[in-house]
Design goal:
The structure is a homodimer of 236-residue chains.
Chain A (H helix, E strand, L loop, with lengths): L2 H15 L11 H8 L3 H13 L3 E4 L3 E4 L8 E2 L15 E12 L2 H7 L6 E11 L2 E11 L8 H5 L2 H8 L4 E12 L2 H7 L6 E11 L4 E10 L4 E7 L4
Parallel strand pairs in A: 3-10
Antiparallel strand pairs in A: 1-2, 4-5, 5-6, 6-9, 7-8, 8-9
Helix pairs in contact in A: 1-3, 2-3
The structure holds a DNA duplex (19 and 19 nucleotides).
DNA sequence: CAGTGGTCTAGACCACTAT
DNA sequence: TAGTGGTCTAGACCACTGG
């Protein structure tokens, strides 16, 4: 593990263990440098990690402060692919409805950047949060990248499998979302009535090398869909 | 302007001017260093900016590549506060329905982290995208931080006013969102029927020093609400 | 194994905040 | 004006990718 990652984790634990609140001040750079016995750049790099995670904010000339969310019970929209990591807050389970190998349609081929009719895994799952239906998800997974998949893996975390069993590194994702109403089939799976609102999200996930490996369409149960996003002001 | 900011802008322009596509390779670090006549760290810092903006991705041992969105017509959820910057893609206008000074309710006081009954500006606006109703927005703005506001400013960009006229720096934001149905009043303002779905978002905006200055509640017209989010894999 | 990006250091100097 | 975070450098060394 890299120095700055380790330091980031330790500072995060420090915040957690001491139950620091929004606006609480962390030790100054100088102190952190001597405490961890590393150079200034390394501390800065560690703090950058925490800033990206929305855990701290830095004010030039003033200090380093804790940033905390004011509300609980919301799902982080930027980290909601694997879910596993949110297990502390939520109990999320899945039921696999269907798992097949299919030929890529033009829509799937386009989003996965592969040839028409290439083989993809098609996985249809219902996901539950604390026992309630959370979403109906259809995933198309490039078989050229993930050569094997079964129901057991899909019931657990496909992302963990890709990371741990296959040793692939997940890099980034694009998500497109809009609001719509449930059709009959979606409503049936979510145990809701058709015509009710839903959040519809399409995701494309990429490996660190830029290859897209997973295209998914997700219909969220509006009753369970509370999300949050923390933005850092690189645009503001 | 800082060196790394300037370099980031130049590289962005280079990508734009040459119409580079997803996966196209940029010059290697060594080349960029000599081309801009700066140290390695400065180039890395510039590339980091572009990576956060979702414009490039870097692959160790391989190169620096262009990252492009596959779809047009979606609003970036992480940058949708000012709107002004999206003017290239969308024509967004506002109509101010109401502008008052009010006493902060407990909800507003809590979200703005101020005393109950402190004075806040209350701004109710309808926003239009390409002539269609986009959203109905209610903002509560801390009068202790923004001492003056009028209809003209609110019709244009409140954020630009805060930045440019008041010289304040906007730092970060928290957004909470969920899907719901329109009530009669909201429907009226959005020119839709009650009972139709909506995306409901609450935002809290902070200055760089961590002070929250704006709490807003936004109801989006589902017909015009197409959003995208690019995630970088700091969690994946 | 050559090419390429990432980490880390030590230190000079700059810019903002608070008092 | 002291304290604190940010920028920038030059260079050593590390880690991953791909032919």
């Amino acid at each position: 593990m890299l120095k700055y990652q380790k330091i980031a984790i330790e500072i995060e634990e420090y915040i957690e263990n001491n139950q620091l609140q929004q606006g609480n001040k962390l030790p100054v750079l100088e102190t952190l440098m001597t405490q961890f016995d590393v150079s200034k750049s390394t501390i800065i790099k560690a703090l950058e990690v925490l800033e990206k995670k929305g855990l701290i904010f830095q004010v030039r000339g003033s200090g380093i402060f804790v940033r905390r969310l004011r509300r609980k019970g919301y799902i982080n929209l930027l980290t909601n692919q694997g879910f596993k990591k949110d297990l502390d807050d939520f109990s999320i389970t899945s039921k696999v409805v269907e798992l097949d190998v299919k030929k890529a349609s033009s829509e799937v081929a386009h989003n996965l950047n592969i040839e028409l009719n290439s083989e993809v895994y098609y996985v249809k799952r219902i996901r539950y949060i604390n026992g309630q239906t959370l979403c109906l998800e259809e995933s198309y997974i490039d078989k050229a990248i993930i050569p094997y998949l079964n129901k057991e893996i899909a019931t657990e975390s496909i992302f963990n499998y890709i990371r741990e069993a296959l040793g692939l590194k997940i890099g980034f994702s694009d998500s497109y979302l809009y609001v719509d109403v449930l059709n009959q089939e979606e409503a049936k799976f979510l145990n809701l009535k058709s015509g009710l609102p839903k959040l519809y999200v399409e995701n494309i996930f990429y490996l660190t090398n830029g290859q897209s490996f997973n295209f998914s369409k997700v219909n969220y149960n509006y009753e369970q869909s509370q999300f949050f996003i923390q933005a850092n002001g690189y645009y503001l």
